[in-house]
Specification:
Two copies of one chain form a homodimer. By secondary structure, chain A is of the alpha+beta class. Chain A is 49% helix and 18% strand. In chain A, the strands form three sheets. In chain A, strands 3, 4, 8, 9, 10 and 11 form a six-stranded antiparallel β-sheet that branches. A three-stranded antiparallel β-sheet of chain A has the order 5-6-7. In chain A, strands 1-2 form a two-stranded antiparallel sheet. In chain A, a hairpin with a 2-residue loop joins strand 5 and strand 6 (147-154). In chain A, helix 1 (5-21) crosses helix 3 (40-52) and helix 8 (191-198) runs antiparallel to helix 9 (203-221). The longest helix of chain A is centred in the last third of the chain and has 21 residues, at 325-345. Chain A is elongated and about 85 Å long. Chain A binds a DNA duplex (30 and 30 nucleotides) through helix 3.
DNA sequence: GTTAGCACTCTCTTATGGAGAGTGCTAACG
DNA sequence: CGTTAGCACTCTCCATAAGAGAGTGCTAAC
């Protein structure tokens, strides 16, 4: 069944009011906030329909309605509308963002911090990653007679290192010579090509080439570095200031812990990001949608930045399902642009 | 005034009982837990003295005592006694720790995770840092005609990178030649020495040498990479499961946020660690002692690892003042040893 | 110095009774 | 037939009260 125009207007009002007040929205509040020229009784009839359709729910008989995850989704897909950032805000952000930083790492952190601060929620940013990774340079540093540190620099600037052991002592000069040799031989090759080339090298170099191939491969698949900021900001949200109606203190604690664990376990974030559709626009995940990862209480507004297939990363905002989706989308989109510019400059 | 032997025994019992139960300890509980051959009335007399001396306090007239920060400090300094880890636990840890990891980063993370898991609290580990940092290798990668990525590898394996711009186009071959030249010229030098040498180089190379010196200097002062784990474990502690007696929900929220912000702001951690006395044994900070950083509710058990003045880092455990100090000290000490071995192997 | 006894105090839990908010229903209206 | 006014009903929230429980502080005896 499809909603009438007025019902949509009411749903929109409920979502936006609840998002800004964090309290259940009653029929009277809808009338005053929506500007509709109808009585609260009429609204009540429509709200009853919204409830059977599953877009809103009430916690107790006399306590206004709040949106369900389905309600948020309807809002996001059909009612939200565009919201360009105010130009003044865009200027402020651009200015903050282009402060004297020169390291990519600092930029990534800054991007996360800016988004977190402006949304009062957690922000995620991953480092940009190239689709095809090729070797740039090899360096070997002797640490002990039988051990050395193998350093591999990839073409996108990623640096990987690994310890290696020898059956017999090697000195630094030998190692440097080998490294130079490997650098020139293998420069510009991808992991699989290095592996192939390894078979035609002398024994000692072959072992190293295998390790290098392994490292380059790891660089390809690598859990890209993830930055997040704003956990403290998110905790200030009313969702964490006390148990919700019907919720025990323990459940509040669990809810919070789910987010903390999610952020701690980088792979969970990676899994989420990997599951994104390729469409390059901003993507919204509400209540972790079907995936019952224990993140039902959180929503994600996620975007990509960078150059398709060349060097791209993800960024996004995470917070309680009660979130300013419109602002979040606008902000993510804007930061994507800024970050894309940055990557292109690199 | 100095405490009698029995009073110390009572204080010890109160601390240990409170640490394990998280509930105020009454006189009767002290009698049964301590094994003292006196009545509860006698204990009450002594406890009254402990209270005027400031080692314990009670929240309400009829609610047992809990240790004050001073009480914890007394316990830690005089009553705690040694607690070697059980050999079985040590073996387990050693085994966990020496699983197939080859990257330093992974080891640091693992160390933090192990400590956090075993203490149900937050664990901190910093990367090892050399006191004197010297240049190992320079690499320059052209990204655009007018821009390049400068990569500097230090002798301890640290890698730093920075973007640089040129007034006129440079191709990769030129840049590689310059990098090779700089590598051989500056290898093994410290930041100040590179700066001095820069003045005698031709113009173009001088600018780069200055940048390199700058990077090496940054490597020296650098906020060393900080790893933490176990925030989710700490949140499970009863301290965060509900407001304490007399505490509002907001205060609980604030308390938690203080820790989150502390961990987020790496520099706060660095400041704390920098303030440690040089003594190489484990150091305990209770309720942030005099420093009123808003961390009055937390204690730190901190240790160092690595080789004095050569390559050393910090590790430690952070949690509510109600903490198993003895176990924490033993664990930190043991992990220090393991990490020191690791650094020596590097 | 130690102990038994006991009144006292304070919290925590449970019960009770409005006040307030918002609904759902019914009947009337255009 | 959609819309509206009116009103009883339900449920939460808050303050108050009473009783149980725990632990103390004091006093007097050992």
């Amino acid at each position: 069944m499809t909603l009438s125009e007025r019902q949509e207007h009411i749903l929109k009002t409920i979502v936006e009011t609840y998002v800004s007040t964090a309290r259940p929205v009653g029929s009277h509040a809808v009338v005053t906030a929506s500007g509709l020229q109808v009585s609260s009784a009429t609204v009540r009839n429509d709200v009853a329909i919204l409830e059977v359709e599953g877009y809103v729910r009430q916690f107790h008989t006399s306590g206004g309605r709040i949106p369900t995850n389905a309600g948020y989704r309807y809002y996001v897909e059909r009612l939200m509308g565009p919201n360009p950032l105010s130009t003044s805000e865009a200027v402020t952000i651009r200015h903050q963002f282009h402060q004297a930083h020169t390291e990519l790492q600092e930029w990534l952190k800054l991007a996360a911090t800016i988004m977190a601060y402006r949304m009062h929620n957690v922000a995620l940013v991953t480092a940009p990653k190239s689709a095809e990774v090729r070797l740039r340079h090899v360096e070997i540093i002797s640490t002990q007679p039988l051990m050395a540190l193998l350093i591999v620099v990839l073409q996108d600037g990623t640096v990987l290192q690994e310890m290696m052991a020898f059956p017999e002592p090697r000195n630094q000069e030998d190692l440097s010579a080998i490294a130079d040799r490997l650098s020139t031989d293998l420069r510009g090759l991808a992991a699989s090509e290095i592996e192939a080339r390894a078979t035609v090298l002398p024994d000692s170099a072959a072992a190293m080439a295998a390790m290098i191939s392994h490292l380059v491969k790891r660089g390809t698949e690598q859990h890209t570095q993830l930055y997040h900021a704003g956990l403290a900001d998110m905790i200030r949200q009313p969702e964490f200031l006390g148990p919700r109606p019907g919720e025990s203190m323990t459940m509040l604690n669990d809810r919070l812990r789910q987010m903390v664990e999610f952020l701690q376990q980088g792979f969970a974030v990676q899994r989420l990001l990997a599951g994104l559709p390729q469409a390059s626009d901003v993507h919204i995940v509400i209540g972790s949608d079907m995936g019952s990862d224990g993140l039902q209480d959180y929503s994600f507004v996620l975007g990509r930045y960078g150059l398709e297939d060349e060097s791209s990363g993800y960024l996004g905002i995470v917070g309680p399902t009660r979130m300013e989706y419109r602002r979040a989308v606008a902000l993510v989109r804007y930061m994507s642009e800024l970050m894309t510019d940055l990557v292109q400059a690199y």
